[in-house]
Write a structure and sequence with these properties.
The structure holds two protein chains of two kinds.
Chain A (H helix, E strand, L loop, with lengths): L3 E3 L2 E5 L4 E7 L6 E7 L5 E8 L4 E4 L2 E6 L4 E6 L8 E8 L13 E6 L1
Parallel strand pairs in A: 2-10
Antiparallel strand pairs in A: 1-3, 3-8, 4-5, 4-9, 6-7, 7-8, 9-10
Chain B lengths: L4 E3 L2 E4 L5 E6 L6 E7 L6 E7 L2 E5 L7 E4 L6 E5 L8 E8 L1 E2 L2 E2 L3 E2 L3 E5 L1
Parallel strand pairs in B: 2-13
Antiparallel strand pairs in B: 1-3, 3-8, 4-5, 4-9, 5-6, 7-8, 9-12, 9-13, 10-11
Classes of the chains: A mainly beta, B mainly beta.
Amino acid sequence: GEDVEQSLFLSVREGDSSVINCTYTDSSSTYLYWYKQEPGAGLQLLTYIFSNMDMKQDQRLTVLLNKKDKHLSLRIADTQTGDSAIYFCAPSKDNAGNMLTFGGGTRLMVKP
Amino acid sequence: DTGVSQDPRHKITKRGQNVTFRCDPISEHNRLYWYRQTLGQGPEFLTYFQNEAQLEKSRLLSDRFSAERPKGSFSTLEIQRTEQGDSAMYLCASSGMTGGVYNEQFFGPGTRLTVL
């Protein structure tokens, strides 16, 4: 099965950029999702990228994909205190509605 | 539609008791998923339904766990003879199709179970 690894913790100052990294093992993963979880809440989809893309930008979010190395990153520009949360990457083989395999999550702390 | 809802939000029970959780998906979504999230970990897949049919179950879903979606709308997850290791957040998600492909999964707020 798929193994997904993320670093546990990231601390940045308000206004700086944050980069959250993710590695996965299944090279057939074609849809790669990023979810955000705030304390006591469910998961909110932030963005996703298809495996035929290297980069996707969505306002302050930039997703980079290195398919050869099976490495995914999420960059948040001008990080705000409201961005403090846990971020999960979740690769998926297809868009057939199958289950997701999540990484352990990266806790982002934004200091004012 | 306001999204995926789950009830209750919190449940405290004693070891050995049975508990049941409910999930109401987004109304037009035919797929419904259950995940379990323990403290400091990412969600782990338990099971999912397409309409009323249960299509896949994880090996995490022991025989003490049962899930149903009798009319293809809401779903229930029951845990019998709860153990302290069952303490976790139970997350429900749903997804629907657009143009023949499934969209992303939308998650509910979760039910936090504490087994004393």
